[in-house]
Specification:
This protein is of the alpha+beta class. The protein is 52% helix and 14% strand. It is built from 20 helices and 12 strands. Strands 1, 3, 4, 5, 7, 10 and 12 form a 7-stranded antiparallel beta sheet that branches. It has a 5-stranded antiparallel beta sheet with strand order 2-6-11-8-9. Strand 8 and strand 9 form a beta hairpin. Helix 2 runs parallel beside helix 4 and helix 8 runs antiparallel to helix 9. The radius of gyration is 27 Å and the shape is elongated. The mean pLDDT is 97. Bound molecules: (2S)-2-hydroxybutanedioic acid (LMR) and manganese (II) ion (MN). Manganese (II) ion binds next to loops.
Length: 430
């Protein structure tokens, strides 16, 4: 333990070792008492503060208590403010602190922690990379980009920095050529943290958009082999294992016929509420903002998302929402939405996948002219007014509209019928 023990701590090493042993034997009530005793006599002991922080964290788990967790964070933070903290201990405490801050939902504080760490250890490549990731975790991709660019200026071979910068250039900046270069080189490096579904997904996506489909398929196949995707075609990243996966579903296969029929019987009422929102002056449709389109207009009007009703929008489509309210597996689908979706002629939606295999997506045709088509995997179909098409959007799909009038559908996501009630309750929202 010499590398985490400063001169003062060395004098009380036996006491510290004893407290650490209690901790390692999972005797947290005893180890905390011991650390407290040490701190009372040695109020600047880095190892005692660190040990107490770790103990409080364990107690937080044991009692499922945020209060303990917050005290753990407080004690770990104090380590970084003490004098003469050995480098190794400083890093251990800092990393643990940032991790606990993120767990608590304090991503902004974790960023500050990594900033402090990378200022103290400017040559530590891993810490700089972790600093970049801490920005991504709170969606500050601009800041993250700058950090990874800095890393690569100093360490041009960091595969970890390459995949992360490539990811940002694709997802945020739409710089496809650069993204392909960085993502493929980063994956090639096989450094820890580079073999990740997100990077294979965005690399393949970029290649498809650049017209390099054969290369994209190779990465999708490799992603399947490495267990990053359910399959080369089903590339959602938030999955429950063992659920039946098939591109197209029949109403019977879903088990939701009763509810599908309820909506079908009322399709004209639903259509009229959707149509009423299409007026650009008074309507509430919003443009698709996930960068999924090559060309054309696509707008959505959302009634439910993440299992919650959008009360304001439901006021504008009360009859549709009253129907959905009768469908527990749609209105409560925390991993899906209910929304009107309107596409103008000329649109092409790039091949893409939804985020999760936990939902089955039903489209009710409302206004369907000649021309629009949707491909799921290798089977291309179209909509009919008053009829459903049902598919699993975790499989690759692509949309075109080569007609000359607007297409309107209602999209209803249902929980995958094989999920148990406990799973539905426990799954995080998406
Ligand atoms: C999609 O989610 O890609 C589309 O199918 C949505 C739509 O309105 O057709
Ligand atoms: Mn889609």
């Amino acid at each position: 333990f010499s590398s985490i023990t400063n001169d003062e701590d060395f004098k009380i090493r036996d006491e510290l070792d004893e407290a650490d042993s209690l901790f390692n034997e999972d005797k947290y009530e005893e180890s905390i008492r011991k650390y407290d005793l040490i701190i009372r006599a040695h109020i600047t002991s880095p190892r005692a503060y660190y040990g107490k922080g770790l103990t409080l964290d364990k107690l937080g788990f044991k009692h499922m208590s945020n209060e303990f967790l917050e005290r753990a964070i407080d004690f770990l933070a104090r380590v970084l403010d003490l004098e003469n903290v050995p480098d190794e201990l400083y890093k251990m405490a800092g990393r643990k602190l940032a991790d606990r801050q993120q767990f608590r939902g304090w991503g902004g504080d974790a960023i500050k922690t990594f900033k402090k760490l990378s200022e103290r250890f400017p040559d530590d490549l891993s810490l700089k990379n972790e600093y970049g990731v801490s920005y991504m975790m709170v969606g500050q991709n601009d800041k993250a980009r700058a950090v990874f660019q800095e890393v690569l200026a100093k360490h041009p071979n960091s595969g970890f920095a390459k995949v992360h910068l490539g990811f940002i250039l694709k997802a945020k900046d739409n710089k496809l050529e650069e993204a392909v270069q960085l993502l493929s080189e980063g994956i090639e490096s096989q450094e820890p943290g580079t073999i990740d579904g997100r990077f294979f997904l965005h690399l393949g996506d970029s290649l498809i958009r650049l017209g390099r489909e054969a290369e994209a398929r190779k990465y999708f196949e490799e992603g399947e082999k490495k267990g990053l995707f359910l399959s080369a075609w089903q590339r959602s990243l938030y999955n429950v294992k063992g659920l039946t996966g098939r591109p197209w579903w029949t109403a019977e296969q879903t088990g939701y016929q009763k509810y599908l029929n309820l909506l079908k019987e009322n399709w004209k009422t639903i259509r009229d509420e959707g149509l009423a929102q299409l007026d650009p002056a008074t309507g509430s449709f919003l443009p698709e903002e996930e960068n999924l389109r090559e060309t054309g207009d696509w707008k959505q009007f959302t009634l439910y998302q993440q299992g919650r009703k959008n009360a304001k929008n439901c006021e504008k489509a009360p009859k549709t929402c009253a129907l959905i309210d009768q469908i527990p597996d749609a209105k409560g689908c925390k991993r899906g939405q209910v929304k009107f979706s309107v596409m103008s002629p000329g649109i092409h939606v790039w091949p893409h996948v939804g985020p999760t295999n936990c939902r089955i997506r039903a489209h009710l045709g409302l206004v369907v002219p000649e021309g629009p088509t949707i491909r799921i995997v290798n089977d291309t179909r179209s909509w009919k007014e008053g009829q459903f098409i049902i598919f699993d959007d975790s499989f690759e799909h692509e949309v075109w509209h080569k007609g000359n009038a607007t297409r309107l559908v209602l999209i209803v996501d249902f929980w995958h019928p094989e999920l148990t009630e406990a799973q539905k309750r426990g799954l995080s929202a998406i």
